[in-house]
């Protein structure tokens, strides 16, 4: 086995040639994370602008029915994520991280372009919702594949002692995409009237998403293949990666599932649902709730690199255990004492998102450190996206239904049970800081 210093020199060579200026390392991080920003921008604008374009894709008459049908198509795209993690994970492990990164961003941009230019139901009839569905299926596949591809790329390109820092830009870029979608929504709704937004204004963000995808593709065109993949390819590719994964790495697969339970709840509660919960449950002013959510998301984005650097110094496990234990101890009392004031909502949001950032900042690193290169992308993409689809896809609906019955506290117990499973997973996992991914 090579010495740590030799491994470090090799990994640094993979990230950038020794003679390259520092911008080369920055370009590596940008290339690995830009697609994630575009993916989450495109994914978010669909939900944000559905209220404006839903009536354009379905027969006139019942706006609520049209909106529900539009969100039904959103859910279909959501459940394509595990398929994307599986299919594009295998593609990445066979043909390389660079090829997979190019394909995923092209698919997402293509889906946005289809939505942007599809004629209305009044113009082409049933073909309109069919094209919308096809676009969402394409984007669901893309989002499932992008996470696995970007995760493996950044982890394999990083020097072993900086892998946490490099990995932090996966969720940093996701927050950038979500905030950009929110900013575009604010700008358009502040400039255009409701009638203009419904007629044509909703097409603008999808066109921007398509253009952003092309820009990301241009940035990714000149990135090198990772040294870990090139080294693995010489030994041959796995002909049956799923069988190899389940037979040779069942513990690691279950570990990814354990990681993803609490973290999926955390994302969909604190990124998406707390503002709605505050408005409906404690009668907070909508502007107050969404302002607190936006500020908390900005903080969440900014602390990603800091926690990535921290994990490179103290290790992965202490940070992960602190995250899960924090949720186990404080989640229930904070959620049940949430008030309508800006300070109360912001405190709850900051608790949820800052603790969650202790995981997201190093999630790509710890996931990549579980598997050998030959099955790394499919090993991450398949179990992770499956858990996200099963739990994330049902979280808003389940919480809304329980809330309507006055039983929302049962959902909090559900989250606490997930926190116990995830905490045990973190305690039992080996420390992987500085591991050689080759």
UniProtKB/TrEMBL annotation:
One of its GO terms (molecular function) is symporter activity. Belongs to the major facilitator superfamily. Metabolite:H+ Symporter (MHS) family (TC 2.A.1.6) family. InterPro entries: H+-coupled_symporters, MFS, MFS_dom, MFS_trans_sf, Sugar_transporter_CS. PROSITE patterns: MFS, SUGAR_TRANSPORT_1, SUGAR_TRANSPORT_2. This is Alpha-ketoglutarate permease. It is a multi-pass membrane protein. The chain crosses the membrane at residues 40-58, 64-88, 100-117, 123-144, 165-188, 200-219, 253-278, 290-308, 320-339, 345-366, 378-399, 411-429. Its main location: membrane. It comes from Achromobacter agilis. One of its GO terms (cellular component) is plasma membrane. Residues 28-433 form the Major facilitator superfamily (MFS) profile domain. Keywords: Cell membrane, Membrane, Symport, Transmembrane, Transmembrane helix, Transport. Coiled coil: none annotated. It is found in: Cell membrane. PANTHER family: ALPHA-KETOGLUTARATE PERMEASE. The lineage of its organism: Bacteria, Pseudomonadati, Pseudomonadota, Betaproteobacteria, Burkholderiales. The keyword Transmembrane helix applies.
């Amino acid at each position: 086995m090579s010495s740590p210093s030799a491994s470090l020199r090799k990994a640094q060579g993979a990230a950038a040639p020794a003679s390259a200026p520092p911008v080369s390392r920055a370009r590596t991080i940008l290339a690995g994370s830009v697609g994630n920003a575009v993916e989450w921008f495109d994914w978010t604008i669909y939900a944000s602008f559905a209220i404006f374009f839903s009536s354009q894709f379905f027969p006139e008459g019942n706006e609520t029915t049209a909106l529900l049908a539009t969100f039904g198509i959103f859910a279909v795209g959501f459940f394509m994520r595990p398929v994307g993690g599986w299919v594009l994970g295998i593609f990445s492990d066979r043909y390389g991280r660079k090829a997979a990164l190019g394909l995923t961003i092209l698919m997402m941009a293509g889906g946005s372009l289809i939505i942007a230019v599809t004629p209305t139901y009044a113009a082409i009839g049933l073909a309109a919702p069919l094209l919308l569905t096809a676009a969402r299926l394409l984007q669901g596949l893309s989002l499932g594949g992008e996470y696995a591809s970007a995760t493996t790329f950044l982890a394999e390109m990083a020097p072993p002692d900086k892998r946490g820092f490099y990995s932090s830009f996966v969720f940093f870029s996701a927050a950038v995409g979500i905030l950009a979608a929110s900013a575009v929504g604010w700008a358009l709704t502040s400039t255009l009237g409701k009638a203009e937004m419904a007629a044509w204004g909703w097409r603008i963000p999808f066109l921007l998403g398509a253009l952003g995808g092309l820009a990301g593709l241009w940035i990714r065109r000149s990135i090198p293949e990772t040294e870990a993949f090139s080294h693995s390819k010489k030994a041959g590719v796995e002909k049956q990666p799923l069988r190899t994964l389940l037979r040779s790495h069942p513990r690691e697969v279950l570990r990814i599932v354990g990681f993803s339970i609490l973290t999926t709840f955390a994302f969909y509660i604190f990124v998406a649902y707390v503002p709605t919960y505050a408005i409906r449950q404690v009668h907070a002013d909508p502007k107050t709730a969404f302002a607190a959510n936006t500020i908390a998301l900005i903080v969440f984005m900014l602390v990603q690199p800091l926690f990535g650097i921290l994990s490179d110094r103290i290790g992965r496990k202490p940070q992960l255990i602190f995250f899960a234990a924090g949720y186990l101890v404080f989640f229930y009392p904070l959620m049940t004492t949430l008030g309508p004031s800006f300070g109360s909502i912001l405190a709850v949001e900051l608790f949820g998102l800052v603790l969650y950032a202790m995981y997201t900042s190093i999630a790509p690193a710890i996931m990549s450190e579980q598997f050998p290169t030959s099955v790394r992308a499919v090993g991450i993409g398949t179990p992770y996206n499956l858990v996200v689809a099963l739990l994330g896809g049902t979280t808003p609906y389940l919480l809304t239904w329980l809330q309507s019955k006055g039983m929302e506290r049962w959902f909090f117990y559900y989250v606490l049970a997930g926190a116990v499973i995830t905490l045990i997973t973190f305690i039992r996992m080996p420390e992987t800081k500085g591991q050689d991914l080759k």
